[in-house]
Amino acid sequence: MLISYNWLQDFLQLQVDPAVLAEKITRTGVEIPTTAHPMAGLKKLVVGHVLTSEKIEGTHLHKCQVEVGQEAPLQIVCGAPNVAAGEDVIVALHGARIAGNEKIKRGKIRGIESNGMICGLQEIGFADKVVPAKYLHGIFVFSAGSDVKPGQDVYEALGMDDYIFDFDITPNRADTLSMEGAAYEVGAIIDQKPKIEQVVLKEDGPAWSDKFEAQVDPKLAPKYYLRKLTGIKIGESPLWLQTRLWNAGIRPVNNVVDATNYAMLLTGQPLHAYDAKTFAAGKLIVRQAQAGEKLELLNEKELELDPQDIVIADENKPVSLAGIMGGMNSEVTDETTEVILEAAVFDPTLIRKAALRHANRTDASARFEKGVNWDNVQKGIDVAALLMRNHAAATVDQGLLKATDQQRQAVVVKTTTSYINHVLGTELSGEDIAKIFDRLGFGHELAGDDLTVTVPNRRWDIEIPADLVEEVGRLYGYDNLESTQPLLPETHGGYSVRETKIRRLRKLVEGQGLNETINYTLTSPKAAKLFTKSDHKLIKVAWPMNSGRSALRQSLLIGLVNAVSYNFAHKQEQLMLFEQGRVYNLDDGKYNELEHLAALYTGTAAHHNWQKLDQPVDFYWVKGQLTSLLAAVGIKDLTFKAAIIPGMHPTRTAAVYAGERYLGFVGMLAPVLAVKDKNLQGHDLYGYELNLEALLPLMTTGLKNEPAPKYPSIERDVSLLVDKEITNAQVVDCIKANGGKYLQAVHVMDVYDGMQIEHGKKSLAYRLIFLNKQATLTDDVVSKAVEKIDAALADQLEAKIR
Amino acid sequence: MSDELDKLLARLKEIQAEGSQEIDQAVNKEKLNDIRVKFMGRKGKLTEILHSMKDIAPENRRTLGQQVNSLRDKFQASIDQANQDLTHKLIQQRLEAEKLDVTLPGREPLMGSKHVLRIVEDDLEKFFIGMGYQVVQGPEIETDHYCFEMMNLPKDHPARDMQATFWIDDEHLLRTQTSGDQARVLEKHDFSQGPLKMVGPGKVYRRDDDDATHSHQFMQMEGLVVDKHVTMGDLKGTLELIAKHVFGSTEIRLRPSYFPFTEPSVEMDVRCFNCGGKGCPICKYEGWIEVLGAGMVHPNVLENACIDSKVYGGFAFGVGLDRFAILKYSIDDIRDFYTNDIRFLTQFRQEED
Asked: Is B281 helix (H, G, I), strand (E, B) or coil?
């Protein structure tokens, strides 16, 4: 809420600089991010009295003589349609500064001398939304009865000399959504008791309430008051009232609507005025809407009402969406002479839901949903009635109709001085604390350590001792709290074993030269199903922002593909990216979150260089990276089997196993992906994705030293010719199975299936490494082992040893 | 007989001149070896002269012997020198042939990098671990129960509107805050084993349209300290340490605020580290920058986890890791974190520990 410094002076004696006060309020109560001073930056803006105004032929302009308190009137050319002789207007003199730091200079318009400018409110800095409708497209005209004289500065008359605090309230402090509430708050902060005046309202019209029936469900509206006003003459509100409204960000409309808004700003109680004709039958009903009912709001929005909506209805139809906005069919118009004025307390949750449902939050609904002061309902309605009486010639009919009138008891909170001190870390005495409750205007009883606090209904946010701690803490001043460190027994910080392992993997992958990315969890249902072998159900959000972000990913690669695509679009083509994060699925009604690790490679294995030593990444490069990563964390018994994975190249992808356990896959991404995403065209992508839930338990823990071998190893090479379909894995398995206990390692040396090789065959060469850790190995032993291997290869794989 | 001596001495002079010249002109080590053999070998010229010794008077033999030996030493020295020079020359030639243009660029391997949000996360984690906090992880698919109800946000609580939620079904949602981790840890913690000190980092989700300042996915870190004697002064002291560690800011301001799960609740602003408080675009001309929310754990949150709020209490805080990164590195578009432009990603390598 925008709180006027000048208006606050009605309640408090403020001598402090507004900026200093704003900072103090921010630190103690409610954040004030900005303080506006509307006249700041403006210069030489005075009241002018238009003596004559004649139309300039062939233009939309007028040549005016304007009295501005100088010896002679000024001639000013004005383009506004509503300029006329006899008006009091805003004049920017020669040398003036108007909004946007624009300078006004004497000059000629269409050859006619103009010594200034007659201004509209927007031109001197007013926002469109607060400018009265009739001045929206022209100059501002001071209403008759405005106490202004030609030549005087306009700032005070227009309320521009004010300082406007933007109270950025949190949901619990709706008590400050009124001038009175703000005055209580500021008063507590500066230790001054605010002067809150009672309303004395004269009811000199006939009694009305006994002839009017209001049927109100007390669950919907625990308080529901009505007044009737007659003899109204709709017109403009006095300028002082209008300035208070527009300084609070509310557009002045007419003397009835303005009265309700003003009363709301003052008391925090939202009010609504109906044209009394609406209820000509003498019956008003507060009920929930029925299915199929419709209502056109004052902002011309057509609503299909929901059975949860509270409406005000006549005997047939809704005429207002309760607590939110009135209906077009009960609007106060220029012809209105009698109004029914409503002040109520509505169910906060129903109001909040209805405002959300119909996307129609208003100043009133914002207050109702956060709660209002139950003790201020009558004051609200009486202030509005009084203003109409004073400024709209209204007669207040006798009787305040209270259709419902539940009472709320003041909350009594019991606590102790020691509890408050214990939470805050302070050493305040009971008297110190009592003084703070005095400032807040809370009743209190101090008996030794015990403290009983009675909280007035205007502070409905306070219920429990912790709430009192906050009041004491903030008014004592958080700045005054001594900064300490918790004096607690020693605790050992750190990561869980699982987290430590995940971090180790991230570090290793980064060390391999990959750049970490973080991608979105939400993707399209189609994309979410790619790059996973599992056929678990997708998890979808119930109300997505768009279909592209409606399902939870089942792989990380999909995010990496998007990242690569984005980079390609920006001409970045050398990419080695990884992500470590979660994937999600629904399995047998259970929501699963699995930690994964994925990498995507494209381009070359090193930066391009003039020596041309930059091979393109390929399957074996990526497989090598993955293998060395897994080796670094002690994963043993690794096997790779050709596999089909959605999104992956069907003949260039391998499933990765440790023993029988499926860890993930590695391979080339399906070239077909480039059909949908043009950015990917012409690029080969390789990658892998690992399920860390399977991998983490296999990672080495509790390593024991194995001494480096003291005896030399012996190497033997084996070359063979086999059928093309025989895989490396088959050969290696055969060699290992037959190599004896000293065979340490088998390395592929060469694979050749080109020219000079029999069709349908390929040539393979392996280097075998033998080692006896206990003694020097003899050639004899090794030769025997190799003979056995050769024989097995020939026998089992029909290999020709070369 | 001195004639013979003179003749031999003259011959020695000739040999000296001849040898010296040949050594000087030798172009390689083989040639030098030939010269050595020619003059000093078993059949060499100097040896020949020694063989002629028998022809001269015995009293002169000593003189001649000395002269021959002296010349042999001279030759040897010259040959050694020449050998050394040749070696040196060869090395020189080879080095010259190996000359590189050292100004040509080197071959750069691809260097890995940590995501900037991880850098911020890891840095904070390390900071808190140093103060004895455990790092805790919780689920991103949270239940209404843990994300809201346990955190003192019952159904229909208006504060739920502050966090537009991605619902999955009636009970499950994508967590809007990491606070659910608090509830889970509070339920499990055994206070007889010591105080509870934890931070919980992770992804959170809000139903927001993505733009430069909003993201439907971002990262938070939750902190919680609960024991029998934890005060708001302790909270203030801890927050000051965070401000100093992350922003180098020593001046902070605590403002009353509202979170359903803390009471009292505060927000912390730090003095703008860019302008020092004079006002600049980074602090939106306010001189202060809001960096985190915190407060004393609401008694309902403790009671919901079956902890006696009359005995135990503590503080909680929550930081937005994206916000920290944005402020610390002057990043002007939150989407940059998630589009992963390689040029954006790799620049932060310099910030890794």
From this structure: coil
> b/e for A730-743, b at 16 or more Cβ within 10 A?
ebbebbeebbeebb
Q: How far is CA A767 from CA A712, A746, A762, A770, B37, in A?
A: 16, 6, 17, 10, 51
Question: Cβ contacts (< 8 Å) between B115 and chain A: which residues?
Answer: 516-518
- A616: contact with B, CB 8 A cutoff: no
Q: If we measure between CA atoms, which residue out of A568, A544, A533, A794 comes closest to residue A689? A: A533
- Per residue in B56-74, pLDDT (tens digit) is 888 888 888 888 888 889 9
Q: Which residues contact A244 (CB under 8 A, 6 or more apart)?
A: A4, A7, A159, A262, A265
- Say yes or no: A499 contacts chain B, CB-CB below 8 A: yes
Question: Is A34 in CB contact (< 8 Å) with chain B?
Answer: yes
Taking one residue from A and the other from B, the number of pairs with CB-CB distance under 8 angstroms is 260
Contact: A496, B137; criterion CB under 8 Å: yes
Q: Is B296 at the interface with chain A, CB within 8 A?
A: yes
User: What SS3 state is found at B113?
Assistant: strand
Among A121, A113, A107, smallest CA distance to A42 is for A121
Average the pLDDT over B300-321 and give the result. Answer: 95
Residues B286, B295 contacting (CB under 8 angstroms): no
Q: Which residues of chain A register pLDDT less than 70?
A: none
Question: How far apart are the CA of B304 and the nearest CA of chain A, in angstroms?
Answer: 16
A242-278 pLDDT, tens digit each: 999 999 999 999 999 999 999 999 999 999 999 999 9
pLDDT category of residue B163 using cuts at 50, 70 and 90 = low
Longest dimension (CA), chain A: 128
Collect all residues of chain A within an 8 Å Cβ-Cβ radius of residue B338. 518-520
Whether B225 has its CB under 8 Å from any CB of chain A: the answer is: yes
pLDDT of residue B161: 67
As a residue count, chain B comes to 353
Nearest-CA distance A225 → chain B (Å):
26
A693 touching B (Cβ < 8 Å): no
Is A521 in the B-facing interface, judged by CB distances under 8 Å? yes
CA A144/CA A146 separation, integer angstroms: 5
For residues A76 and A117, is the Cβ–Cβ distance under 8 A?
A: yes
Going across the sheet that includes B252-259, the strands are B134-135, B196-205, B217-227, B313-320, B288-297, B262-271, B252-259
- Encoding tokens for residue A691? 């399920």
Which one of A23, A28, A166, A170 would you mutate to disrupt binding with B, by most B Cβ within 10 Å of its Cβ? A170
Amino acid at B103: T
With H, G, I as helix, E, B as strand and everything else as coil, classify residue B310. coil
Q: What pLDDT is stored for residue A752 in this prediction?
A: 92
DSSP, collapsed to helix, strand or coil, labels residue A85 as coil
**Surface-to-core class of residue A317, CB atoms within 10 Å of its CB (0-12 exposed, 13-18 middle, 19+ buried):** middle
Q: How does pLDDT run across A151-175, given as a tens digit for each residue?
A: 999 999 999 999 999 999 988 899 9
Q: HEC states along A309-346? A: CEEEECCCCEEEECCCEEEHHHCCCCCCCCEEEEEEEC
Decide if B264 and A491 are in contact by the 8 Å CB cutoff.
Answer: no
Please judge whether B137 and A499 are an interchain contact, meaning their C-beta atoms are less than 8 angstroms apart.
yes
State the pLDDT at residue B232: 97
Q: Nearest to residue B236, comparing CAs of A418, A476, A185?
A: A476
The CA distance from B213 to B334, in Å, is 6
Interface test with A, best of B122, B263, B331 (most A CBs within 10 A): B263
Residues near B194 by beta carbon (within 8 Å), at least 6 away in sequence? A488, A489, A490, A491
Is pTM, for the whole model, over 0.95? no
The answer to whether the beta carbons of residues A577 and A600 sit under 8 Å apart is yes
Q: Is B253 helix (H, G, I), strand (E, B) or coil?
A: strand
Q: Could you tell me if A418 and A446 are in contact, meaning their C-beta atoms sit under 8 angstroms apart?
A: no
